[in-house]
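For the sake of clarity, the format in which proteins appear in this thesis is described at this point. The record quoted next illustrates the convention:

___
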Amino acid sequence: MPLPKMKPENIIECMSKFDGTGLDGHLLKLLLAVLETGSITAAAERLGVTQSAVSHLLDKLRAITGDPLFVKRGRGIVPTARAEALAQPARDMLHQMQLFAQGVAFDPLHWQTELTIAANDFQRDLLLPALAARLRSAAPGVTLRIVPSGAPSAELLRSDACQLVISPRPPEGTDIVQKRLLEDQYRVFYDPAVRSAPLSETEYLAADHATVAYEARRGLELDQLLEARGVRRRMVVRVPGFAALPAFVRGTALLTTAPSLMGRTALAALAHVPVPVACPSLPMYLIWHVRYQQDAAHRWLRAQLQDVLAAVLPAGTGAPASASVALP
């Protein structure tokens, strides 16, 4: 096919209509196809388009560059010096476009950030020390900041006050993503040096209790559910976190009802038995904003937390029978 003709005055006229912003990946691929095949026909076959489409795009590329790019030599065509000079920049730009579309590979060793995770003391003490140790090794440029989640709100994530929340209470919102990490069961903790285990509902309800209240006039969801069933315990102490309970229970006849996994952390010094009344389970969720859903660094972080959880609760090697690890 003859090389499309474009007079110099036409090039000047077209240059007034086009600039570099008209450049796209199709034009860059076209330039390289014609350069590498040395033929309009072969370039059209490589690109899977018609010869007329190649001619039209080549005219557009000439207008942008202000150069004929290819000229006739006998029955064939040869590139101009400008076309040859543009070959490597075209390859580089196509590579950058691919990186733009695919994202740069994430390397935690070069990650520099302050990462904020909101978690109350139960989740904090169970999972985050092991996560911090992993980050120091795999992502030494990350500073881990931990803040209390209380009863978390969606705004906590929307405002980027934190990048992750670990909580049994996922806030509602179509822009909030959650994943169940585990499901634990409640146990009754007590000081065996002072009292015996409460083995019946009567003993359980006759005792004085200590509990956790993260918000004023709002106890644990467990407390609310039991009261809704007509199970009323005598609460004599309310503290702002599970970590405060041992100081009030130790040396007294008080009971406290807490997740079984607290027996590995803050309540390890106390004895515990099953709750002698019907109790709900306690799920635990990893929660984040949808804007981080596909972020490579955030996905890596979530995977690290899953690995930490598997290490804390290794299946069949000492994990409490009352706790289960969520599948990925």
